[in-house]
Amino acid sequence: MNSKLIEEFINEFKADFPEVELETSELKKLIEKMISEKPEIPLDETFKNILKQQLMKQAQDQSPASTPAWIKWIASFGGGIVTAAFIGLLVWPSQMPVNENTPPSTANKMSVAMGVETPLITIEENDTENAFGTISKDEVAGNGEAAVSEPSVGIGKGGGGGADSRYIMPYPGGRINFTYTYSGDPITADATTTRVYQGKQNSLLSSNILSQLSAQGIDLSSFKNLSVQNIAIKESVGDWPYIVNIDNQGQSINIYQNYEVWQQSRCRLKDQCQYSDPKPVTKEEFSNEAAFINVAKEFLNQHGIQVKDTGAPYVEKYWLENQEVTEPTYYPENATIVFPLMIANKEVMQQWGGKMGIRVDVGVRDRLVNSAYIPVLALESSDYNAYTSEELLSLAAAGGNEGITYTNPERVVNLELGSPKREIRNIGYQTKDFVYRNLFVEMLVFPIKDTPDKKQYLPWQKEIVVPLAKNLYQ
Question: How many domains does the chain have?
Fold first, then answer.
């Protein structure tokens, strides 16, 4: 590689991180060594992002006797300040598990290009308090919640949004105001601050892709400031090949069947010339959940998909909710394995419930992975003032984030709340300026106890959600 390009890269690195006192000659030797072994490595932003995540891990994994002095010096600062490193890619993919069916040269190239051990979640700390501002009632208008037109109407008295009783579909039984009485264990909220996370756009693809891209019938260079929004890559070898869709805009990776080949293979190898097996899946066939989880783990490991930012995997059983019987009569042909994402050792929940994470669909009978969804989060964090225990209970009594207050209710119904659990919940919405914001906020989630009034007036709602961040919602 051109020596001038290496020097430019080093200069950028040292300008970004002046606190890392590394000699230019040391950096140059490392880069030249890496390039001599793997000449296909581009010195681009993806390369820097991979390095960012690897230095501290590799420095901590080194034994004291083998750790170079300059790595010890950097490690003494902690993981927050170093955002590029060269040690990570010195651990070449030959030391990592790869797909045994993939040719070695291809496996190595894929592992380096996609970033071996690249985490699903990266977090950059922002030292400014309340860095993401507030969520106003006007901002959430048009995102599934009605705009506020009178000050006396609110959702959860500051719990996030508002609703005008003139424009809300009434609850069954008329216009009802719900209040809540807490009957759980004492709540202790000792922390004076809580951390809020905001998603930011982070390219999942190498920045040199466009420079190598051309298309017949059009001059792509005639367009300016191009970026790749998503890309689909089709595997075309073997009986069960996949298509990989990298969604740069949605910050996710989707893997699914190369459908045409899979159909031919099922027909040829399994004598299944129909997509669905005519025989329903039985309880016994679905009961071996540990086997399904192992298949999902092996698949993720085989393709270099890291699970260190996830909790314990489990088999999702959402389909049971629609079967109000003691013994289910239906079992799906695919078992969905969820590896829940974790931020600060807390599970990340979708905005309206359900765990966010890696999802792998495994065939109950053939034990083949049919599809996989991998979210990739690049986050920025900031501290916000936290509510006290008394304030949290007051918000819960008013309905939290989802409570609707009518100015002219027909009745008031009081329900009972149990002891809460702590979760980090995703809040995504589009502002009035058409800017999409994606926040992750720590919440207290109070279960609504099952009482006759709940069954009659609020049968569909299971919980009351209250944010810990005091200055996030207006």
Answer: 2
C-alpha distances out from residue 402 to 306, 328, 458, 461, Å: 35, 32, 12, 10
Which of 94, 110, 126 delimits the end of a domain? 110
Q: Is 294 contained in some domain?
A: no
Counting beta carbons within 10 angstroms of the beta carbon of residue 378, is it exposed (0 to 12), middle (13 to 18) or buried (19 or more)?
middle
- Tell me the per-residue pLDDT of 7-32, one tens digit each, with 9 for 90 and over: 777 777 666 665 555 667 766 777 67
Q: Say yes or no to pLDDT of 435 above 50.
A: yes
In a domain, 118, yes or no: no
Q: DSSP states of 169-238 as a string?
A: PPBTTBSEEEEEEE-SSPP----SEEEEEEE-----S-TTTGGG--BTTB-GGGS-S----EEEEE--SS
48-54-56 Cα angle (round to 5): 120
Is residue 95 located within the same domain as residue 143?
Answer: no
Vertex 45 angle, CA 210 and 429, to 5°:
85
76 and 164 housed in the same domain: no
315: in domain = no
Report DSSP state, residue 449.
P
Say whether both 31 and 92 belong to one domain. Answer: yes
With contact defined as beta carbons under 8 Å apart, do 423 and 429 qualify?
no
Identify the domain containing residue 401 by its residue range. 137-198+382-467
- Pair 353, 445: CB distance under 8 Å: no
Q: pLDDT tens for residues 280-324?
A: 888 899 999 999 999 999 999 999 898 989 999 999 987 776 666
CB 408 within 8 A of CB 177: no
pTM of the prediction?
0.67
Closest by CA to 423, choosing from 355, 373, 339, 337, is 355
394 and 451, same domain (yes or no): yes
On whether residue 305 sits in a domain, the answer given is no
